[in-house]
């Protein structure tokens, strides 16, 4: 079966070697199976993403020899589509508005007898303050235009038939058990933009017919959540292949802030596309 894969960077800085490894991990199976490799710009975060970075990373990927079909999907141009999904989840009672600030959440946790619990991605599990807001109070806050996020009601989501028994297929490793409950009431729409990474990536993988999601090992836990969203929305299930993250000589994960690891710096040093691909762990020819 031909694989349809994608590379989905967030344009928050220059392309670095870790990105190249990720892009090639998607490009290779697509190429080898006679499938397709897509590029998607995940730029919903207005504070951190810049169009200039996106153009720069496309030019670096092109220089490396990668090609992808047009048009490239820029998530920031499709916010209405994500809003429609949120509305559907809202009608089913699966999301609720959360008016809490970070401070409110910290205070709530401090006031309770329990230590904060953390989700697999390191975020603090939301204590559920706004889940139980009386409808009148919630409506008044909404009517007053109070800034709010939208959170998934995890308990309700898990009560949807089949939601507790989800698995995903990890290529080469077989079926993996999903543990979406470990994330608690995760944010599906941020306060500043009516969208979130988890929602948009899952929506777009389905919309674009991605059959194999390749990405870094750091995102493996999020796959549980993505499978839950696919289940709730009736979206097709892709396969997954999480690749190890590149480390430096001392075994530390490559950091974005390390300028020596940017492709721009490598180009300035006179490295060839082949040298850079080899440094990312793909020494062979591209075609
Ligand atoms: N936009 C995400 C990132 O840059 C990647 C998402 C994914 O591959 O699922 O980390």
Automatic annotation (TrEMBL):
InterPro entries: aa-tRNA-synth_I_CS, Glu/Gln-tRNA-synth, Glu/Gln-tRNA-synth_Ib_cat-dom, GluQ/Sye, Rossmann-like_a/b/a_fold. GO terms for cellular component: cytosol. Residues 5-274 form the Glutamyl/glutaminyl-tRNA synthetase class Ib catalytic domain. GO terms for molecular function: ATP binding; glutamate-tRNA ligase activity. PROSITE patterns: AA_TRNA_LIGASE_I (PS00178). Keywords: Aminoacyl-tRNA synthetase, ATP-binding, Ligase, Metal-binding, Nucleotide-binding, Protein biosynthesis, Zinc. One of its GO terms (biological process) is glutamyl-tRNA aminoacylation. Pfam families: tRNA-synt_1c. Belongs to the class-I aminoacyl-tRNA synthetase family. PANTHER family: GLUTAMATE--TRNA LIGASE (PTHR43311), GLUTAMYL-Q TRNA(ASP) SYNTHETASE (PTHR43311:SF1). This is tRNA glutamyl-Q(34) synthetase GluQRS. It comes from Novacetimonas cocois.
């Amino acid at each position: 079966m031909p694989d349809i894969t994608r590379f989905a960077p967030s344009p928050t800085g220059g392309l670095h070697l870790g990105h190249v490894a990720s892009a090639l991990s998607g490009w290779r199976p697509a190429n080898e199976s006679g499938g397709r490799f897509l590029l998607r710009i995940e730029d919903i975060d207005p504070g951190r993403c810049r169009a200039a970075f996106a153009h720069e990373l496309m030019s670096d990927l092109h220089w490396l020899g990668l090609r992808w079909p047009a048009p490239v999907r820029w998530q920031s141009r499709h916010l209405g589509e994500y809003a429609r999904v949120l509305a559907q989840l809202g009608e089913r009672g699966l999301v609720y508005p959360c008016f809490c600030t970070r401070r409110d959440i910290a205070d709530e946790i401090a006031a309770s007898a329990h230590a904060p619990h953390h989700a697999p991605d390191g975020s603090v599990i939301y204590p559920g303050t706004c889940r139980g807001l009386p409808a009148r109070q919630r409506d008044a806050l909404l009517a007053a235009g109070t800034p709010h996020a939208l959170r998934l009601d995890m308990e309700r989501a898990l009560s949807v038939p089949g939601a507790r028994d989800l698995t995903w297929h990890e290529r080469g490793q077989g079926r993996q058990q999903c543990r979406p409950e470990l994330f608690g009431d995760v944010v599906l729409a941020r306060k500043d933009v009516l969208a979130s990474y988890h929602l948009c990536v899952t929506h777009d993988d389905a919309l674009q017919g991605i059959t194999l999601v390749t990405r870094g090992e750091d995102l493996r836990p999020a796959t549980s959540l993505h499978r839950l969203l696919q289940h709730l929305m009736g979206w097709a299930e892709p396969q997954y292949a999480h690749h190890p993250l590149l480390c430096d000589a001392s075994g530390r994960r490559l950091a974005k802030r390390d300028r020596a690891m940017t492709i721009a710096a490598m180009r300035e040093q006179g490295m060839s596309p082949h040298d850079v691909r080899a440094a990312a762990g793909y020494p062979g020819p591209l075609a």
